[in-house]
């Protein structure tokens, strides 16, 4: 395996430093600035993430990212590839999260192929809801091409989750989020995903808001060396607390760096840096330097290199 970088590896970055990767007007200067800000904050490698929208808009945004990355060697050195989150996710209230519900659709192999074509081979990860993927057709299509498939914004039952894993699902995106605040106390997607912890990489946002620290500590103990920390950073990441104008929204970012919709009905991502996540893991969970490095770098790097969660060994995370 190629030696992992010394900095953080972040599999989910929607924007950074005031720059929104999901903007139709992303510029070369803006993307360079965002990558510089990520590197300044310790990120060595990241996946730029495009979320649910109409097919045409997603194709445009993916093509734009690819085009700008090809023009800038520095950007290419930071952005290892693309993460497509949606549009094949649950439309159930709570599970859809901040994704526009009118653009959510059942998994469609032809739409998936057009999205992949737009990335010119740079897609590394796709998040979908297994229950929305009839006969696991899209999961198989992606897995056959060596693209990681992750469950997210999903209420898949155990049978659906097992079938998806058999078809090539290898990860769960930001577990504990993309689901309603109030769930059945035992039968819920978090517990189902944790029951498959020996077969899945499990990703978590370590800001203490998306998942509070006592719960995060429990989840990390169970996931062990299959746990990965992501930022789920949006454009306000790296700007610190305060009021920030991002696209059409005036967003208030608190000291915890969580970002809420203007009416505070739901989270719209995080302004947390991976450096802050590392501090949380050390301060609130008592993890040592090696454990923090594993969670914020080497596990994600292993996943990017195509190593399955089932191949992971040891218990260095906790």
Task: Walk me through what this model shows.
The protein has 318 residues and is of the alpha/beta class. The chain has one domain: TIM Barrel. Helices cover 35% and strands 21% of the residues. The chain has helices at residues 28-40, 55-70, 73-78, 109-119, 137-144, 158-167, 189-195, 213-223, 274-285, 289-304; strands spanning 8-13, 15-16, 19-20, 43-51, 79-85, 123-128, 148-151, 169-172, 201-205, 227-230, 242-246, 249-253, 258-260, 267-270. The longest helix has 16 residues, at 55-70. The two termini are 23 Å apart.
Please state the overall shape, judged from the principal axes of the Cα atoms: globular
CATH A-level architecture: Alpha-Beta Barrel
Distance between the termini: 23 Å
Largest sheet: 8 strands, parallel
**Helix coverage percent of residues?**
25-40%
Can I get a quick summary?
The protein is an alpha/beta fold and 318 residues long. The chain has helices at 28-40, 55-70, 73-78, 109-119, 137-144, 158-167, 189-195, 213-223, 274-285, 289-304, and strands at residues 8-13, 15-16, 19-20, 43-51, 79-85, 123-128, 148-151, 169-172, 201-205, 227-230, 242-246, 249-253, 258-260, 267-270.
